[in-house]
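Figure 6 in text form: structure in, sequence out.
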């Protein structure tokens, strides 16, 4: 079916401009449909991959990947940390005090989740230092009244570096008056993620004094080598600790976001793959028009000794070339769009003076993108296969043309 003859004639038909204007127009539309479908699918999957990457590399590096708690607080965090770090999956660990309360600045009151941290250990257990505007994480160790705010949280409070704010923590007792502390903003971290909306960092000793268990820490956070082994690691560590200790992994806190991203990726990929199917259906219409336009050529080829399977091979080659051209162009356009979508959306936001993505709604406040060449190969392969399959019916139709009937009116 495929030989030098079928390949040369099929390529000539695919690249020739001598056909009718209508056939040429429909052929260009088929190629254009493939280009748009392949490019859109590559770009959308790259954006989904970008969200997945930001979740793993940004949010999950700021928030704990695994945590060990004790119902009454942890009195000897160093000993528990040593036991946690002995696990082969754990890469770093740090104690923390978790407080939920309110921040008040100039009449603006905002709910906040505050972590009391040890700066030296926190630097090893998270990448918060990358996002600090003034790189003053160590100020928390020297100043018990220092606080670092997320960028969105600071904006909601109308606060900046040097601002005085009041931290209010409700007591557990129904009639107890809340604990309050005056704090000074020493730095702001801006990760561009949802973490900026509600997170603040302060001195661990000062934070511990505002809890129901002064002098103790709330828990030990740790990072793992393999994110997807965090649940098993937490289970193994907590089972080796005394009674009263329990654990939690990132799938409990951000697992719903991760699952939503992957579910959306699969659904979007399926829907956009249907676009490639529609483009392949247009290729069927194009090749049927070519068969009608080339009836006399087919008849002449048959009279000169071409077999039916040679005719089939010619039109499958033609369909494969048209599909290949559309797929390659679509892949090039898709990869270029994927690499430029982050800057393009940022530029459009700047021109229009509005923000399309807010971290209080989306995991990040910008449009991320990551091209995975495995996705590009999968999309291009699917498009080529559908193009070849779409060529079979017109090719069989061409092979059934009778030379005498086709040449009767010539």
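Output sequence:
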């Amino acid at each position: 079916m495929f030989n030098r003859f079928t390949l040369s004639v099929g390529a000539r038909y695919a690249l020739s401009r001598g056909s009718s204007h209508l056939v040429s127009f429909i052929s260009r539309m088929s190629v254009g449909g493939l280009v748009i479908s392949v490019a859109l699918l590559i770009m959308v999957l790259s954006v989904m991959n970008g969200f997945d990457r930001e979740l793993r590399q940004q949010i999950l590096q700021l928030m704990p990947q695994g945590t060990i708690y004790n119902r009454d607080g942890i009195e000897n965090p160093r000993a528990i940390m040593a036991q946690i770090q002995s696990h082969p999956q754990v890469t770093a660990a740090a104690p923390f005090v978790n407080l939920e309360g309110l921040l008040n600045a100039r009449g603006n009151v905002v709910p906040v989740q505050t972590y009391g941290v040890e700066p030296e250990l926190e630097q090893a257990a998270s990448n918060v230092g990358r996002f600090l505007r003034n790189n003053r994480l160590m100020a928390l160790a020297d100043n018990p009244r220092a606080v670092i705010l997320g960028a969105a949280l600071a904006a909601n409070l109308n606060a900046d570096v040097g601002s005085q704010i009041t931290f209010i923590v409700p007591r557990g007792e129904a009639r107890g008056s809340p604990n309050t502390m005056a704090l000074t903003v020493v730095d702001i971290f801006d990760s561009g993620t949802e973490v900026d909306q509600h997170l603040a960092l302060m001195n661990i000793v000062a934070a511990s004094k505002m809890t129901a268990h002064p002098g103790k820490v709330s828990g030990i956070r740790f990072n793992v080598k393999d994110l997807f082994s965090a649940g098993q690691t937490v289970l193994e560590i907590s089972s080796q600790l005394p009674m009263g200790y329990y654990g939690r992994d990132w799938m409990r806190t951000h697992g719903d976001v991760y699952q939503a991203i992957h579910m959306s990726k699969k659904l979007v990929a399926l829907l956009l793959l249907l676009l490639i199917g529609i483009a392949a259906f247009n290729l069927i219409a194009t090749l049927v028009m070519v068969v009608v336009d080339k009836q006399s050529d087919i008849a002449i080829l048959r009279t000169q000794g071409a077999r039916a399977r040679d005719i089939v091979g010619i039109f499958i080659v033609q369909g494969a070339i048209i599909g290949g051209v559309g797929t390659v162009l679509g892949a090039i356009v898709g990869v270029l769009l994927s690499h430029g979508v982050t800057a393009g959306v940022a530029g459009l936001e700047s021109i229009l003076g509005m923000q399309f993505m807010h971290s209080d709604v989306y995991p990040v406040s910008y449009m991320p993108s990551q091209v995975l060449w495995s996705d590009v190969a999968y999309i291009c392969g699917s498009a080529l296969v559908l193009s070849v399959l779409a060529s079979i019916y017109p090719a069989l139709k061409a092979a059934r043309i009778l030379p005498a009937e086709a040449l009767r009116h010539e």
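Caption detail: Strands lie at 66-74, 90-105, 108-117, 146-150, 164-169, 179-189, 199-203, 217-224, 245-249.
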